[in-house]
Design a protein that fits this description.
One of its GO terms (biological process) is negative regulation of apoptotic process. With 266 residues, this protein is α+β, with helices and mostly antiparallel strands. 42% of the residues lie in helices and 11% in strands. A hairpin with a 4-residue loop joins strand 5 and strand 6.
């Protein structure tokens, strides 16, 4: 069908999966032309597109992606997954609130340079709280957590999970008129999926207990845990856990005087 009247339209999730699978099967693409075709056959089968897209069409899509993401020619041709995911979560007009946008990217020997939007004035949530010397009040915490939940929902809807939510990865834009939280640093991010992740990414003290007990993490539940840890930290001016044992065993402790829902009060 790829060579006929029907032309498959690639989605943003397709693009991210294409990039990741190309990286995972990089050895198949080296050498002769036949080897590259074998690589595309493997990737397309994994994506479930083998009957919709030909290896030649996939190769052409790859060349266009390299131009779109401004990847410099060199020994390695892979497109960094972080760049693709930032493009997915930050695209749209108007751009979604709560996510710092990728403006440009450059690959130089040994490193990847990202040009990111920077709201002014701003500071990360860790500094925003610690520079005050006191914990945030409940109402301000509600505003920030609501905005973080909305941002997480945006990236979920676009098929992405952050995997490293923490106070250092939240940028707070504050001026006299409003407060806005932004998610930053998608270096540990991945495509959202039903099956658990079995490779660790993120920050240990924000990691859900299931990693330490089962060596796996589910995208949604681990995100809820990280958000809970952030809320605890900004409400109490301290990180709630100092090691893996505390993450597994320590009960939730909230300061006195916080409001509770009717269900909790009952």
């Amino acid at each position: 069908m790829d060579g006929g009247t029907f032309m498959y339209k690639w989605t943003d999730e397709d693009v991210a999966r294409l990039i990741r699978l190309h990286q995972e099967n990089e050895a198949l693409f080296s050498g002769r032309r036949n080897a590259a075709q074998q690589g595309w056959e493997v990737v397309l089968k994994e994506m479930g597109l083998q009957d919709l897209v030909s290896p030649a069409r996939a190769a052409k899509k790859w060349e266009n992606l390299k131009k779109t993401f401004k990847i410099l020619e060199g020994r390695q041709q892979e497109i960094p997954l972080e760049v693709a995911l930032l493009h997915i979560v930050g695209s749209g007009n108007p751009a979604p609130k709560g996510i710092v946008r990728l403006l440009d990217s450059f690959k130089v020997p040994g490193e990847l340079l990202l040009v990111l939007e920077r709201p002014v004035p701003c500071k990360d949530l860790f500094d925003y709280v610690s520079n005050r010397g006191v914990h945030l009040e409940e109402e301000e915490t509600k505003v920030i957590m609501r905005q973080l939940l909305e941002a997480v929902q945006v990236i979920y809807d676009r098929g992405v999970v952050h995997r490293d939510l923490k106070t250092e990865n939240v940028l707070i834009e504050s001026d006299s008129s409003h407060l806005q939280a932004h998610l930053i640093d998608f270096g540990c991010a991945d495509l959202l999926r039903d099956r658990p992740f079995t490779k660790f990414r993120g920050t240990t003290l924000y990691t859900a207990p299931e990693w330490f007990t089962e060596n796996k993490l589910h995208g949604v539940s681990s995100t809820v845990w990280q958000l809970r840890t952030i809320m605890d930290e900004i409400l109490h001016l301290r990180r709630p856990f100092s090691n893996a044992n505390e993450i597994i065993q320590k009960p939730l402790m909230l300061q006195k005087g916080l409001s509770v829902s009717r269900d909790e009060a009952a």
